[in-house]
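Check this:
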Amino acid sequence: MKSLEFYQSTITNLKQLPMSAGHIDVLFSARDFKAKILDLIASSSKRIYLSTLYLQDDDAGKEILNALYLARVHNPGLVIKVFVDFHRAQRGLIGQKNHGGNAKLYRDMRQRLGDKVTILGVPVKGKEVLGVLHLKGFIFDDNVLYSGASINDIYLHQADKYRCDRYHVLYNPALADSMTAYLEDYFVSQSAVIRLDEDVIPSSKALKQDIRQFKKTLRSAQYHYINTTPESNEVGITPISGFGRHGNKLNQTITNLLRAVESEITIFTPYFNLPLSISKDIKRLLKRNVKVTLVIGDKTANDFYIPPSEPFKVISALPYIYETYLYKFVKTCQPYIDKGLLNVRLWTDEGNSFHLKGLCCDYKYHLLTGNNLNPRAWGLDLENGILIHDTKQLLKETLQAEQEHVLKNTRRIKHLSDLESIADYPAPVQKFMRRIKTTRLDMLLKRIL
């Protein structure tokens, strides 16, 4: 373990792009996010590049896809490319075994409206359970709209339910160019990356050798840009990607951020299942009397939560599994909660779900990311993030307002008794959790959840 000054200098010395603080906007709702997507699609004149886990075959997904086609009709020179996970696009939602997946929508749209929107499937691994495309970011000309959200009814608050996320708009031509070049260089040019709107899509087995080579490429993939020192009225921007357990630059940056904190840090994660290294770093911070705030989704705000009144499904045990991890963590850290150093806050809002991620370190460094801060993100998925260097705290008021907006729907965990234990869970959940404990499947689940 090196000194605090070492980790601070490591963060400071990262390559940066300068940016006016006035060119960063924060959106406060899923509906605003959707409206901004549609507005930016309509106003784009040269390029639209969307990278997301999935674009769903539902009302919101169709509305966005229709808007993309219409934009291309109005401007034939507009380049439109959408990147989604190869495996996720070819299956239905969990429990919908007979659904053809989102690729059927893409194919039908192309057949009806012509070859105007290129939709590419990115196979990060040979199987979805082993890793997915979790690289975020929508580029509209020189604007980057960054969020952990995917595109479907819930993420865009199409009907009565929404999934709460973070939404940031950054106007920065150099950042947009760098993120576009990444998608072109590391995705479009790779033989493993396949169009999903074709009549015939190769299987992952047929692409086995291409995927193997693609994984090697992704391990060293990174954003390229000219390092420039920000002026006194600017912030610095560092885009970062990461893939794999070793040499993962995003993981290294998150670790360095945690170890560089002086007085306070806020961590957003939807599902409490921290990698061991992050858990250890948080405990080190507490020992240094650093104030740590964890903002986590309550189990009832998990997208897999099913009320006890409904029939039990195996997948509905996941929110309870996450809560057991939190229960153990709180039990260990209760003295720090009592001292006011650890502030654990659970988000819930009338049956809606929670999907926020990111770090705020001393209000000087802000990581926008789709990384869930869990073992899966740490070692299996392709992830990215945008680190904002704001040493003069030019964005403090704006980002404080974002935090306050999120925290208004949270409750503080003051004691272990504020959480349910396994003994409080519905009988089918208790039975399932005893079974996985007996077979040691709980250790495997912790790695892939």
About this structure: The first helix runs from residue 4 to 12. The chain has two domains: 22-199, 234-448.
